[in-house]
Amino acid sequence: MLLINLLQPKFQSYIQDSLASADIEINGDHPWDLQVHNTDLCQRVLRQGLLGLGEFHMQGW
Fold it and tell me: What's the predicted TM-score (pTM) here?
């Protein structure tokens, strides 16, 4: 778990940069922007990959 905590800021920055290239912003104002209601998103994606991202979406987080 400590490794995930150390990697989270770098991973979050990578996600934001990748989304920005498609004009998508986390918690942005556009209808196509991602709205993240739980800050555990990055940890879950780091641990579970796309499955974790999909489960996060289905839970409405």
Answer: 0.63
